[in-house]
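Researcher: Next entry in the queue.
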Amino acid sequence: MKKPWSGRFQKDTDELMEQFTESVSFDRRLYEQDIGASIAHAEMLARQELLSETELVEIREALRDIQGEIEKGLFEFHLGLEDIHMNIEAALIQRIGDAGRKLHTARSRNDQVACDVRLWVRDAIDEVRDAIRDCQGALVGKAGQYREAVMPGYTHLQHAQPVLLGHALLAFAEMLERDRQRLAECRRRTNVSPLGACALAGTGLPVDPQSTAADLGFEAVFSNSVDAVSDRDFLIEFVFALSMVATHLSRLAETWIIWSAQETDFVDLDESFCTGSSIMPQKKNPDALELIRGKCGRLYGDLMTVLTVFKGLPLAYNRDMQEDKEALFDATDTVGMALELTARLVRTTEFKTDNMALACEEGHMDATALADYLVARGIPFREAHEMVGHAVQAAAADGAKLEDMSLEQLRSFCEIIGKDVYGVLGVRNCVENYRSHGSSAPAELERQLAEWNERLTD
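Model: Structure for this entry, 458 residues:
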């Protein structure tokens, strides 16, 4: 099959070389962006009188026909034509002849592929941000459903202080909100048109990159043609942002896996998101959560791939750059599915609030509240910390809770303790007495829920 660059060469491309260098097997996913950008480029060429109106109509209609065939699975791709761009152009030329040959005027595959990838990433960002918002909606809904449930809060996987379950669930919503913000910022840097940079140096033809950018919805046009064709920062940044989403989903998955263990038994995962054992009939395994956690490593691999591809490339375009797309597509697909699965899992999970409340009775989680009680009465915190530590030690030795100790026992550690201390001790009192901004106080949870519901309806 004749190559678009074959005029310089006398020998045919080696068959193994064709197999090794082709990218159409995966970059065909860019077909919609490639056709849309080609139509915008043709319209600009017509405005600049580099194409006739008749040629523009021919190009536009033929490209739309090609798109329809691709979407119906009727288009024949050829590995010998290397990539999606040359496959579409070859089909265009075959259908309309010289008008198709003119489409590549004032355009190189270098700025063409840069444009296509920017358009694809821009669309992918919007889809991922929507998926994140849906996942946040599931978390907020579940937090509202269990707004009164109290559970142990952990540090170092040890009982720390009591928290409201809804408050803990909203922590994951906050993580995902930072991901949405990162993606929004990445979108702004992605939304810059490289068309008109050509191979790397620009062109002597009278092109109008600003109009093409406007037609394609870009917010800005490149400033430097060399940078325009060699920049993939936006792609790397996008894969990094996806890796952060995967990190947060992995943390949620790990937390829920721990909550689902028999020793904890805080959650009842819907059976449709679990599997059994091939040998142990009783098993109900949290496979969906485990794979959400496991695929995070896959995202890190995709990120390392794109970082490594670009770490030592000289200016400007290099063929190495086609190696970014498989990692890009894989990262996007994996995170998109993980987000959808997480949202479904969150909506169907039921929490065992009685078990959570029972677990709160272990670990003297009201110790910090007792220390704060002493601080409010003038005891320096470090002294209060030590006094309460002694009280905890004594209670633990007796197998008792702090709230079960008599006033006389408590006053043996600090004589200023009064009867009002029993309004501080105990898990429910701890939660009711939280008052700082963003804390696990019931009123603060209601404020957070109200803010989240407002965000979700914007």
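Model: The radius of gyration is 30 Å.
Researcher: Noted, moving on.
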